[in-house]
Amino acid sequence: MAWSCWARLCSREALSGRRSRGHRFTLYTQQRNGFKRGPQKTEPQKPDQETGSKPYKSSLSPPVQEAIFYTSSPSLKRLVKPFFFTIGFTGCAFGSAAIWQYEYLKSRVQNYFDEARADWMDKLRPQKNGDFRKQVNIWWNSLSEGQRTVTGIIAANVFVFCLWRIPSMQRTMITYFTSNPASRVLCSPMLLSTFSHFSLFHMAANMYVLWSFSSSIVSLLGREQFIAVYLSAGVISTFVSYVSKVTTGRFGPSLGASGAIMTVLAAVCTKMPEAKLAIILLPMFTFTAGNALKAIIAMDTAGLVLGWKFFDHAAHLGGALFGMWYVTYGHELIWKNREPLVKAWHEMRSKSRGKGGGGSH
């Protein structure tokens, strides 16, 4: 959710046509050819006084033209569905992670001897020099558990980034891979936009931070719990962005993984405040993780209050506060109380296995 792509106003002729549409709002998307910037109109365009939105744009946003029309002030009812989606998705994410962990530990015990036998047979086989698959396995095994965990997340972000390069996909990408409380699609983009980047620099910076903190966060939470936290953080930070946009009237699509990554960064910095960090291009300047977190929160708070346009500061703050809350209280309240769910799942699996065994006699 790092870069906030703010909407532009269409021509006055288009604006004049919205007065006959009653009290509902519509999101119009005009696709340009490829990714080239269209010709700019010389006549300055002023926002209509009757619209409830304030148009902004970012240089890192997709080069498509959008306009959001309101005949009245937007209602907070637009947040009802995203609110319930946030609660439901977060619950499902942590429930699925708990079941995943149970199944993984169970299969790990069952496959222990199979893996040992496979390793023994591999030693008996003649080794192939220069085998590509062998080199990949060596590289994969050299990674930490955290780095292996985030590899899939990075691959998903790269795949979505490539989809942005396909001109015929732009309309679909704007609809489903950018989050905007003024869009006709509200819920699914809250998750999908977390994996969406239009700018290469934007994606590279986010993925570098995620890779750098992956070992620390997975060692703190474990693989399954981390995935639940990361996905929930993306949705929660987007919901905070929705709330900010509706209350301030500054509408426009946002995209990026920074809301979820801020949760990771804030969680690690909260748990290890004395750890030393450095800026990518200035490694000679170091500072503590605690001071870095304070500076980031202060900057995003100022950006939210002052209406800075380059970042989605509300999403950043939502992700950071969620990360701080989770490692301080949420882990105890949510993850450590997963036992009833795991027990119910175990009993259901045992019953289904018993029925299957009984039918075979």
From TrEMBL:
Pfam family, one: Rhomboid
Protein origin, superkingdom: Eukaryota
InterPro entries reported in the protein's UniProt record: Peptidase_S54_rhomboid_dom, Rhomboid-like_sf, Rhomboid_protease_S54
Location(s) in or outside the cell: Mitochondrion inner membrane
Catalytic activity: Cleaves type-1 transmembrane domains using a catalytic dyad composed of serine and histidine that are contributed by different transmembrane domains
Protein name: rhomboid protease
Gene assigned in the entry: PARL
Alphabetized GO MF terms: serine-type endopeptidase activity
Biased composition (Polar residues): 52-61
Annotated keywords: Hydrolase, Membrane, Mitochondrion, Mitochondrion inner membrane, Transit peptide, Transmembrane, Transmembrane helix
Region (Disordered): 33-61
PANTHER family: PRESENILIN-ASSOCIATED RHOMBOID-LIKE PROTEIN, MITOCHONDRIAL, RHOMBOID PROTEASE
Signal peptide (UniProt feature, chain positions): none
Family: Belongs to the peptidase S54 family.
Domain Peptidase S54 rhomboid: 190-330
Membrane topology: Multi-pass membrane protein
Chain segments annotated as transmembrane: 83-102, 149-166, 198-220, 227-244, 277-298, 310-329
Upper classification of the organism: Eukaryota, Metazoa, Chordata, Craniata, Vertebrata
Assigned EC number: 3.4.21.105
GO biological process, one term: signal peptide processing
GO cellular component: mitochondrial inner membrane
